[in-house]
Input
Amino acid sequence: MRFDLPRSLGLGSVCASFFGVFSGSNQGQVTHHPVLPPSYPLAVRNPYLSTWMPSDRVHRLPYADSQFWAGQDLGWSVIARVDGQAYSLMGVPDLEASGIRPATVCRAEFTATHSLFELTAGPVSLTLDFFSPVSPSNYLRQSLPFSYLTVHVTRSQGHDIQIYSDIDGRWTGRERRSGPTFEEHGDLAFHSVSVEDARTYDEENDMALWGQVLLASRPGNVSSLSALAGGPKAVRGHFMKHGDLSTGDAIWSHGSVVALAHDLGTVAGEASVNFAVGYEREKAINYLGEAYTGYYRAEYPTTHEALSFFLNDYEDAYWESLEFDRELNTFATAAAGPKYADIVALSTRQAYGGIDLTIPNDSLDTDDVLAFIKELSSDGNINTIDIIMPAFPIYWVMDPDWIRLLLEPIMRYLDAGRWHLPYTIHDLGTHYPHAIGHDDQQAEAMPIEESGNLLILALAYMQATGDTDWTDQYTAIFQQYADYLIDNSINMANQLSSNDAAGPLPNETNLAIKATVGIKAFGELSGNTYYSQIGDEYADLFFTQGLGTDMEQTHFVLEYPDFPDSWKTPYNIYPDVLLGLDTFPREAHEMSNKFFSTSVRGEYGVPLDNRQDWAKSDWNMWLAGTFDEDTRDEFVDDLWAFMTNGKHNWPFSDRYVATSAHGNEPGAPILCRARPTVGGHFAILALKGPASIQSLSITHKPGRKTSKMPLVKSQGADSELVLQAEMA
Ligand SMILES: *[C@@H]1O[C@H](CO)[C@@H](O)[C@H](O)[C@H]1NC(C)=O
Ligand SMILES: *[C@@H]1O[C@H](CO)[C@@H](O)[C@H](O)[C@H]1NC(C)=O
Ligand SMILES: *[C@@H]1O[C@H](CO)[C@@H](O)[C@H](O)[C@H]1NC(C)=O
Output
């Protein structure tokens, strides 16, 4: 099988020829394309399969461990044996002692779905392609908890080649208590490693202890496959010597690896082999006491069936991903320039990598699909409404049904009457994967934040999909929250907003804006003009009459009525624009556009409010979506500058020091790692209309009985936009 590689890789030339050709940045001797990210996603599919390569390790990739999103090192090695000499391509820390040579890393690249590393190993050139599909309308493909590693030999003139990969026990989360199993089914071979006596749903340092790590492959047409598990010195040493693992003998103990090796024989030209790496949990989620499992298990209930399908699906998934990567790049470039395209490309896998797509384990009923999202790194809450909220622009762009899939678990809980407070719940459980609600009524309190969010999200779903049935069944619940907002959002009690790190405030203008837009959204949702009128009246009060602004109307204040010099990024006004509600007049956006383009911009952009030196990248992209082009581009430039500054190596952080005004190092991330909220970076693209990406497959999408049309028209990547971007 032969595949065309993304962009430049298809040229099949040696690494060295890339120097100076591309605009990507150099670090060490490595060219990063399109630019240096903080960390490269390697296998990022759900909260427990989230493996990264910090970009400051890429120049020494042959030695480098990869990382779990939370920062724990994981062993994942790739070795190529060329004419009897072994070269490490990745992940062999003790190279010198081993007799394995380091390959030379020349180039690294990320797209929305691939991370690629080009290396030379003696006389041959190779590319490691780490591919995590993002295919939200194909529930089967999206729900598989596996990721591809394809090792391409891109140039070989008649050399004898074997390719090896291993992973270690650290992937289980409790290395010392883990043990391996090896299985063969037909030509599929796979290792699994699991923790002995792990209790279902137990985590340690955010890693799943239950379930199993998987490394799988199949012999290709021209390659044979062998397997071994044991100490890394013994296993890699055996491969180094024999180019094959079948006669090996090793004992599993602390530090051990499970390994697979392909023998390609003589390669003249190109060849490739595929590995699958995964983390499977049969019982994936505890939803109100019932086990939910991966959607894919309806069709492929056993591990080996799922892995076989995943490997069979490679070609289709691969072609879809190339089209998608290209379309997203073109579309995002047309929307807000090439830097914006870099930002959304790096955000895509991370945004979907915080989610599991599930069905009930017992019935495997594919009409009962629920999505669960983890509040990674802040506190591990499950289906936090103010995580779904910042992220929702990516669902709007890619597949708006996901707004419903994520809200439905919450709506069922509310509908069952298990939440008694007059405002909506913050999340569906204190810690993933326990979506068990808060029957003790003790969820973190964010009354106006979450009530406004829920109404806006419900309308966004309805507008984007045309499905009114889903929202209609919950109208009474939504109405209760709309009434709560009417009663509580002018003289507003001291309370937290989504940015709880900033502390509570009474009368926070940005929350008042959220309430105002939320009330108007319910008016649209229900067709009840009473609510629409009140929304308009509140907007008049907060903006036109100036309760939420300074006297001169230069900006929205942080807190009203008596803090004219305070300010906060009024990002809650963005859905008013996206959903076409026109609650606030044009002048409100013009005011902010002017204010944020001049006075308050730090080295890396605009902080959250006048008290903080840190910015939220998701909210800043929301706000940028309400600006004219110049101010918008400043916000995009600043986020891009943070993303690419080479000063940090976490998965994309959505919170970072934007200004040195408080004496902190600007451009450094704070606390937030790998959060799915980076879906909010799609806010500018979302303005082009819902479901505007055309290249994603829609096979395997069950459920909704009638097929509906969006109520708003998509202005997707039409030919004019595409042309502009290609010429740019
Ligand atoms: C590999 O084998 C498959 C199945 O037998 C066949 O369809 C395919 O064409 C073969 N590919 C090559 C490159 O020989
Ligand atoms: C999950 O489903 C499998 C069969 O698909 C069954 O063997 C297992 O007992 C179920 N577990 C639970 C907790 O329902
Ligand atoms: C909040 O704003 C309302 C309306 O302007 C005002 O009556 C109230 O005193 C304010 N509360 C605080 C704590 O400032």
Observations:
- The first helix runs from residue 95 to 98.
- The chain has 19 helices and 27 strands.
- The radius of gyration is 26 Å.
